[in-house]
Amino acid sequence: GDCVITVQLTEEDKVEDDVVFYLIFTGSTVQHCTSTRKINPGSLETIAPGHDCCETVRVALCASKEGHPVLVVAEESFQFIQDEAYDAAQFLATCAGNQQALNFTRFLDRSRPPAADVEFLDEKVALAFRHLKLPPEWNVLGADQSLNENTPRETLMHFAVRLGLLRLTWFLLQQPGGRGALSIHNTEGATPVSLALERGYLKLHKLLTEEEAREPDSWSTLSHTVHAGDYCVKHHRGLDVYMLTAET
User: Fold this and answer.
1) What Gene3D superfamilies does the database record attribute to this sequence (predicted)?
2) Which of 8, 89, 133, 194 gets the highest tally of CB atoms within 10 A of its CB?
């Protein structure tokens, strides 16, 4: 989700300004309705919704004009795929608190991916995490609540900070156990806060230590979301489009 979709209209569909176009994505359990922005008489653009699972959905392009019935202009299939970012987010979500798995992730630290790759990884994995269906009891520190702050261990927060993943760190901070992870030492005596300082990640250190720290700039920060029961409305300020998501 959250990528730009462009719709090309055929000659007969290029109509006057008072016609409003929108897209309806119908999945197995969730339906999304997105408004569109006209780029020119023959092109529209909108934001792909973040979906709850990997599947092929039906997409209908609809046209609406005051005083007229809604018209379905075209229909097409659209596939939400399971990519590397989705796999990575799922893996990280399941290994919260799993010391063997978290120690395994440390081999990434030795290869030190280039800054551009880290930026891409951060944006994509944080976005995938946002769209995962995490269980209600999910916790950054894992399921074993008997462990206390004095038990040295590796955490998901250590992983995110070690790689300099600013947006993923922010996401984890908002989750249960996120703030608590900041004071936990690993077996080498490092906390996520001390790791950020040691590695010279000044933005990350500020994010972890300042109460008024704001969410890092990203594609997702352009969106404002309001939840209400089975419904969710999202406004994407960059394109000025709206998205309504409902459980079907």
Assistant:
1) Ankyrin repeat-containing domain (1.25.40.20)
2) 89
